[in-house]
Amino acid sequence: MQPAFAAVDWGTTSFRLWLLDAAGAICGQSAGPDGMTPSAGRFPEVLARHLASAGAAADLPVLICGMAGARQGWIEAPYLPLPARLDRLHEAAIRVPTEGDIRILPGLCQSDPAAPNVMRGEETQLLGLPPAKGPRLVCLPGTHSKWVWMDGPAVTRFTTVMTGELYAALSQHTVLRHSVPDAPPTPPDHPAFLAALDLVLAAPAAVLTRLFELRAGQLLDLAAPRDGDAHLSGLLIGAEIGALSPRIDAPLLLAGTGPLLALYAAALTRAGIPFTTADAAEASRRGLALAGSRIWSDA
Amino acid sequence: MQPAFAAVDWGTTSFRLWLLDAAGAICGQSAGPDGMTPSAGRFPEVLARHLASAGAAADLPVLICGMAGARQGWIEAPYLPLPARLDRLHEAAIRVPTEGDIRILPGLCQSDPAAPNVMRGEETQLLGLPPAKGPRLVCLPGTHSKWVWMDGPAVTRFTTVMTGELYAALSQHTVLRHSVPDAPPTPPDHPAFLAALDLVLAAPAAVLTRLFELRAGQLLDLAAPRDGDAHLSGLLIGAEIGALSPRIDAPLLLAGTGPLLALYAAALTRAGIPFTTADAAEASRRGLALAGSRIWSDA
């Protein structure tokens, strides 16, 4: 197989590259911890090294998504304003001023002063999900969960909940660090996870009064320290879903991977919210494949 | 003036000692960063040094409140369960098994499995506030804000909101660190503080969707980076008050000090919640004075 271009998902802390043929099939790959932050000031070298490692010619066309296009990244790929058609995302890719054909896909911005928001990377994941006709709402859970309203291929609105980052900050940098052990992923039927979900789903605004109870319950021997991670996951995922549930006005697609997908699916079920799921593991690659094929088959 | 006893507010990270005469007047004092954590394993030496520094005899009776009575402190002073009469708090002080008469006041616990909670130190502040007849609700804003339902001298229920600690964790250990500058205290009429308050007071459950907007608004040049601290303060204080407002069923007393008191007062006013204020700066000392006079005038 002959690669048509290289697809790169260049995040804040990770780098993944695939060589793709004209049909989107993988004919080589390379990955490493060379995210935007550690690559600052040497983006060309990092890319060249991964191209070589995957066995690609140095002048293969390259399509990049993610934080490499941020202002503090390689070259800024300005945000595309809403509504944004993902099937035309490739038209807004910007060329890196260098030899060869290297392009970076834009992120999306919602320039509403009452609800400003940005994404960078998730737009490519969205493009890589199974397409739908008409309105739908997509939940991409994670460090910064995105809830994205779409109409066919167009993103019309979105919001961000910093659930994963809140979990990390609370469990490492507050008094809750004494009560949330490092633990294997919480199973979605964990009683402490479900009990915490029920508490906050019944009264989402009160989640802020529930956080310290995690610590107090353990001090008073009313809760087991080993359940701390399940308890905190339930509070934060439940609060996210509780905050969004009044706004669910279209068929909901939950697009995630692994244990996090399982926890969100359990939480949505507990909340009585209907949804379908999609595996988002390879969504970035599929989105890059689609956008790249449109760029280089047009050429 | 002859000191009758020494009163000590021994917190996690700070130590304050006053020599008090039989009428509660101050006749000497000493303070330092010798909180429970840095004093671990040498509580007697730290206390003796501050007694000497204040000019007290080494065998003066001592009454302590705060984290020195925690399990990981000097000697555990077990939590007093609710309802707890603060005018009888002194009866539950425990003696440190040492020469001289050194006692530590207990904290309070709410052993309700559906809403477990603990306080240690705030009970003494509450005792030091102007007394009231009948029901009242006291808000003590801070690192861990306490909202305390009382009936005369009895604490009947309370809850904790980790507002100050959330502010620190979000502004130092998440992506918001790029958007929340170190700044002088926010004035209570700051437009960004008031705008953020209005957002979350109107929909407290949605606060989790508002946090990332702080970052996005700055990236999109819709908000000024210098306003980041006022914005985050407004979101978190507004969310605290929004979460508690449905539960305000008694006259509200806001007991705080300095800039934080001003911010909470502005937020309560913005929320249309009636309240009175008390200066909590010396409440711990006054509470210790009351409890100590009851111990050593009974003797």
Biggest beta sheet summary of chain A: 6 strands, mixed
Q: Which structural class fits the helix and strand makeup of chain A?
A: alpha/beta
From the spread of the alpha carbons, the general shape of chain A counts as globular
Write out the strand line-up for the largest beta sheet of chain A, numbering strands in chain order.
Answer: 3-2-1-4-8-7
Compute the number of helices of chain A.
Answer: 8
CATH fold description of the largest domain in chain A: Nucleotidyltransferase, domain 5
Q: Could you report the average pLDDT of chain A, rounded to the nearest whole number?
A: 95
- End-to-end distance of chain A, in Å? 20 Å
InterPro entries (chains A, B): DGOK, DGOK_C, DGOK_N
Keywords (chains A, B): Kinase, Transferase
GO molecular function (chains A, B): 2-dehydro-3-deoxygalactonokinase activity
Protein name (chains A, B): 2-keto-3-deoxygalactonate kinase
Description:
Chains A, B: InterPro entries: DGOK, DGOK_C, DGOK_N. Chains A, B: This is 2-keto-3-deoxygalactonate kinase. The structure is a homodimer of 299-residue chains. Chain A contains eight helices and 15 strands. Chain A has helices at residues 43-54, 122-127, 163-173, 191-202, 207-219, 228-244, 258-270, 283-298; strands at 5-10, 15-20, 26-32, 62-66, 80-81, 84-85, 94-95, 102-104, 108-110, 117-119, 135-140, 145-151, 154-161, 252-256, 276-279. In chain A, strands 3-2-1-4-8-7 form a six-stranded mixed β-sheet, sandwiched between helices. In chain A, strands 6-13-12-11-14-15 form a six-stranded mixed β-sheet, covered by helices on one side. In chain A, α3 runs antiparallel to α6 (228-244) and α6 (228-244) crosses α7. The mean pLDDT of chain A is 95.
